[in-house]
Amino acid sequence: MRVDVITIFPTVFREFLGASLIGRAIAAGLLEVHVHDLRDFTDDPHRSVDDEPYGGGGGMVMKAEPWLHAVRAVCGDGPRPHRILLSPQGERLDDARVRSLAGEERLLLLCGRYEAIDERVRMLVVDSELSVGDYVLSGGEVPAMTVIEAVSRHIPGVVGRPESVENESFRSGLLDHPHYTRPRTVEGIEVPDVLRSGDHARIDAWRREQALYSRLSRSTCGMACRTFGPETRSRSTSGFGRAPRSASRSSRAWSSRGAAAAPGRLSPCARSRGESGSSASSPSIRR
Ligand code: 4G3
Q: From atom 17 of ligand 1, which residue's Cα is the shortest distance away?
């Protein structure tokens, strides 16, 4: 696969593209990434890429012409890339979209900066507008790296063991269980006995139970607690639920949960109670 990126900060991609999985994929010829400086496609001596907005108001708007020149020059006459603008107004990137993008021969990622980009860019040279989440960043560079990394994992040969892509996929990732490695005790928190028992049937059963709650604790338990109140809490503290992932939890935090609160047995709801901002109260962004 070939990926082109257009940005006013081409240098921020250098380390990213050299490291780890992406670096190896490029070295192996499985992935080709070309980063272009938007300013190379300006035609004024100041190489300006932004201007004041028509209609007034604060902030600056990215000018259309540098983008149009850049996109058309980069597309050349080879296979036409799928042209993606990263912006907070885009459709949310998810596992299904990542897999579908991985099937493209070429991608072109447009990284906007400032508050906005002239609407004619969208109208003339953008096929999809994507967002990596409902928050605003200073630029589309980090979202572009997110797209590159997520998509690369689905290019055959990039992830060493193909089963890793499925095992660590979003679907099974939702259902992942807690993992432990040495040492046996970290800041007073012990590895659950079952994992050292050598009894693979029990280990398997434990992992399945924990995996079920890894999904519940993140996606629905907070909601269940708010919706159903104390009843769901006491049910979860009675033996289900898994440890919070937060490394800052000390053994003191465990014991303050009372006798039932052994590691791996803390109510997942305790976590959502401890968090001040719930997803229900976060602002939504225009779609
Ligand atoms: C406005 C993407 C801002 C318009 C980009 C680009 C967040 C995301 C920007 C535009 C971004 C995201 C740059 N912020 N959530 N800022 O994927 O085209």
A: 131
- CA torsion sign for 94, 99, 102, 107 is negative
CA of 202 to the centre of ligand 1 (A): 47
Query: In which element (H, E) is residue 88 found?
Result: strand 82-92
- CA–centroid distance, 215 to ligand 1, in Å, is 29
Distance 91 CA to ligand 1 centre (A): 12
Atom 1 in ligand 1: residue holding the nearest Cα = 116
Q: How far is CA 109 from CA 32, 37, 172, 215, in A?
A: 13, 12, 28, 32
Q: Using only C-alpha atoms, what is the Rg of the chain? A: 24
The pocket around ligand 1, CB under 6 angstroms, is made up of 85-88, 112, 115-117, 131-133, 135-137, 139-140, 143
Give the ligand 1 atom nearest the CA of 114: 3
Tokens of 101: 């993008």
Ligand 1: centre distance to CA 148 (Å): 16
76-102: b (≥16 Cβ within 10 Å) or e: eeeeebbbbbbbbebeebeeebbbebb
Backbone angles phi, psi at 252, to 5 degrees: -60, -40
- Is the entire prediction scored with pTM above 0.85? no
As a whole number of angstroms, the distance between CA 250 and CA 211 comes to 23
Phi, psi of 12 (to 5 degrees): -70, -10
Q: What is the pLDDT of residues 46-99, one digit of tens each?
A: 999 999 999 999 999 999 999 999 999 999 978 999 999 999 999 999 999 999
Find, among 250, 263, 266, 268, the residue nearest to 193 by Cα.
263
10 Å CB burial of residue 257 (0-12, 13-18, 19+) is middle
